[in-house]
């Protein structure tokens, strides 16, 4: 369910996703007039290069439920980064 909603969020609002410096992403809300969410990123070592992966989110779903695999916003952030390999690469 969350994964499907994350795919929908990315499909609808991809242009509003932002990577802020190395450690945060701005993920839009699908509710009109609702503030964006923040997804924190960490650096994970890959086989070919280090990549950014979501580690936490600012929404209530993450804060109170800690869903395995992440909340909708973290899953959407992960899908966005996979779709944009150059942004996914960790830059020092
Ligand atoms: Zn969330």
Mean pLDDT score, rounded? 94
Number of separate helices = 4
The major pleated sheet works out as: 4 strands, antiparallel
Given as residue ranges, the uncertain stretches (5+ residues, pLDDT < 50) are none
Oligomeric state of the chains in view: single chain
Roughly how many Å apart are the termini?
35 Å
Q: Beta-sheet strand percentage?
A: 15-25%
Instruction: Please tell me what the overall shape is.
Output: globular
Distinct small molecules bound, one entry per kind: zinc ion
What proportion of the residues is helical, as a percent range? 25-40%
Indicate the radius of gyration in whole angstroms.
12 Å
Structural class: alpha+beta
The total domain count is: 1
Got a strand count? 4
What characteristics describe this protein?
single chain, 4 helices, binds zinc ion, 4 strands, 37% helix, four-stranded antiparallel β-sheet, alpha+beta, 92 residues
Structural summary, described in words:
With 92 residues, the chain is α+β, with helices and mostly antiparallel strands. The protein has one domain. 37% of the residues lie in helices and 24% in strands. It contains four helices and four strands. The chain has helices at residues 2-13, 60-65, 72-83, 85-88, and strands spanning 18-20, 24-27, 37-44, 51-57. The protein has a four-stranded antiparallel β-sheet with strand order 1-2-3-4. Helix 1 (2-13) packs across helix 3 (72-83). The protein is globular. The protein binds zinc ion (ZN). Residues 37, 57, 59, 61-62, 71-73 line the site of zinc ion. Zinc ion binds at residues 37, 57, 59, 61-62, 71-73.
């Amino acid at each position: 369910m969350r994964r499907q909603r994350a795919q929908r969020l990315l499909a609808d609002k991809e242009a509003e996703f932002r990577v802020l410096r190395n450690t945060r992403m701005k993920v839009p809300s699908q509710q009109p007039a609702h503030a964006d969410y923040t997804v924190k990123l960490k650096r994970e070592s890959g086989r070919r290069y280090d990549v950014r992966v979501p580690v936490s989110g600012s929404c209530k779903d993450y804060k109170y439920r800690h869903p395995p695999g992440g909340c909708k916003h973290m899953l959407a952030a992960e899908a966005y980064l996979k779709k944009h390999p150059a942004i996914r690469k960790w830059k020092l």
